[in-house]
Design brief:
By secondary structure, this protein is of the alpha+beta class. It has 3 domains: about 1-100, Rossmann fold; about 130-190, ATP-grasp fold, A domain (Dna Ligase, domain 1), CATH 3.30.1490; about 195-385, ATP-grasp fold, B domain (D-amino Acid Aminotransferase, Chain A, domain 1, 2-Layer Sandwich). It is about 35% helix and about 25% strand. The strands form 4 sheets. A 5-stranded antiparallel beta sheet has the order 11-12-15-17-16, sandwiched between helices.
């Protein structure tokens, strides 16, 4: 099987996908914006063939690179990046070169907030009212019908970028003074904690591995206020989350993919569907998958694709958490980096300074820790964030 891997070099930990695919007998054809000899050795050795483009945003160059790779290597079976920004490009490549997988018209249902609502309703998931927002008058009508506060965000977008909480009519007017030239979505504000349903599904859209994470703060507030934060996995998955999450996956057009479904858990205990993402969660979460269960999800994905793996035994042995620290707070922290390392000891499984692209949401410094109990995780987070 031959796989065109868009951006195998970024994020840095995603080179494992190419490496494991090659080790399992597949051929990896990479397209990057770096010279082959700038790539780390493990990735370069995993690539059967490679094309460099000036930018993956340059669709014309990427399409031409795909054409050259196919001309040299023959039929391609898979196009995948595991990254949200390239989902439309992947779909267009599949359509142009007759490659299986989600096509352009199907991608809209897992990228547009308005189309996600349709999937949620088919899955009998609880949703709040929302609609594509075209102008100020429509926003005023929506608020008159549903009240304040409301949330406005791009109809197609990633995470909490460009998300606005509107608490007054003046807020709405201010939004229209500064809005970007893009399609926005307005919906009723939901009070609650964000929890996720994350994992990997097989060809039948059944999760062969799944877990759940909870954020310490609302991602919108994290991005806007540059908060210290953490997120952690559950060892036991709430029954309603598992049931609704599996139901949503059955409505998804893509198979053999990672998933990252987001929900609100309201103060009254209700589960409200928020967003669909058919790719791994961001940051170092794939590594957290591994540390929490002593497994290798990079290899697991290769087995699903290459061997049609249908089931997989695993155990959520640990709570694993990503605890961030920020450069702007470096002089305010009560404990130095070295003191943190000494305190965490063997419960620290990974430490990394993150790419600047992640800094707004994820912080500059990431500590991955694991423990048997959630209380231990919360204690470590409090120690790292103490001022």
């Amino acid at each position: 099987m031959q796989w065109i891997h868009l951006s195998p070099h970024f994020p840095p930990n995603f080179y494992h996908f190419a490496q494991r695919f090659q080790q399992r007998g597949g051929r990896v054809l990479g397209i990057t914006d770096q010279n082959k000899y700038q790539l780390r050795d493990e990735l370069r050795n995993a690539l059967h063939d490679h094309e460099q483009v000036s930018s993956l945003h340059n669709k014309t160059e990427v399409i031409a690179a795909v054409d050259r790779l196919i001309h040299r290597n023959g039929k391609v079976d898979l196009v995948e990046s595991h990254l949200e920004p390239w989902l439309p490009l992947e779909a267009e490549i599949r359509n142009m070169f007759d490659i299986k997988g989600a096509q352009p018209h199907e991608i809209e249902s897992i990228q547009q907030k308005s189309r996600m609502k349709e999937i949620f309703r088919k899955s009998e998931a609880l949703v709040v009212e929302g609609e594509v927002l075209y102008n100020l008058e429509q926003g005023l009508d929506f608020i008159a019908k549903h009240g304040l506060p409301v949330i406005i965000k791009p109809n197609t977008g990633i995470g909490a970028q460009d998300t606005h909480k509107i608490e007054s009519l003046q807020d709405l007017q201010n939004f229209y003074k500064t809005q970007r030239d893009t399609s926005y979505f307005i919906e009723v504000f939901v009070e609650g904690d964000i929890i996720t349903f994350d994992g990997l599904c097989n060809k039948n859209r059944e999760p062969i591995f799944f877990t759940s994470h909870q954020y310490s703060h609302d991602p919108r507030a994290i991005a806007e206020e540059q908060l210290d934060f953490y997120y952690f996995n559950y060892r036991e998955i709430p029954e309603d989350l598992e049931r609704v999450g599996k139901s949503i996956l059955k409505q998804i057009p893509s198979a053999d993919k990672f998933f990252h479904l987001e929900f609100f858990r309201t103060p009254k205990g209700s589960l409200v569907a928020l967003e669909i993402n058919m790719r791994p969660p961001g940051g170092l979460t794939t590594d957290m998958f591994n540390y929490a269960a002593d497994q290798d999800v990079y290899d697991l994905w290769a087995r699903v694709v290459l061997e049609d793996l249908q089931a997989y035994p695993y155990e959520r042995k640990y709570h694993c958490a990503h605890i961030c620290r920020r450069e702007k707070n470096s002089l305010k922290y009560r404990h130095s980096h070295q003191q943190c390392l000494d305190k965490l000891g063997t419960q620290l499984v990974h430490y990394r300074q993150l790419n600047p692209l992640y800094a707004t949401l994820m912080g500059e410094y990431a500590y991955l820790v694991r423990a048997n109990t959630l209380d231990e995780i919360l204690e470590m987070a409090a120690y790292l964030h103490a001022h």
